[in-house]
Design a protein that fits this description.
This protein has 107 residues and is of the alpha/beta class. It has one domain. Helix content is 24%, strand content 20%. The protein has 4 helices and 5 strands, in the order E-E-H-E-H-E-H-H-E. The radius of gyration is 12 Å and the shape is globular.
């Protein structure tokens, strides 16, 4: 699965998402691009899932307009040490996530 890590997700988390083709927003040259435009760019580039820690995304955008699944990691911070424990469940969720679906993963 082609996965994009949002700017708020630490880049090293990509190495924990084993079995997926993972890029980070900064690697794509999309730093600073706001959510709606970012989602459009991600869809056009063939990404199937956006991984973010932005819990407000679902209230800021009509996700039905974008053919990409959204995986929201919810931890006490967006530090890698707080996010890594969520990886096993995130990988599990990615097996069944569909376009325009938002799934939250919590500890």
């Amino acid at each position: 699965m082609k996965v994009l890590l949002d700017e708020c997700v630490p880049r090293p988390l990509k190495f924990d998402l084993i079995g997926h083709d993972v890029d980070h927003v900064t690697e794509m040259g999309w730093s600073g691009i706001k959510n709606g435009k970012l989602l459009g760019l991600a869809v056009n580039a063939g990404f199937e899932v956006l991984v973010t820690t932005d819990q407000n995304l679902q209230y800021q955008q009509n996700l039905q307009n974008f053919e990409i699944g959204i995986l929201v990691l919810i931890a006490k911070s967006n530090r890698i040490d707080d996010l890594q424990p969520l990886v096993p469940e995130a990988l599990n969720v990615m097996r069944g996530i569909t376009a325009s679906q938002l799934v939250e993963v919590r500890p």
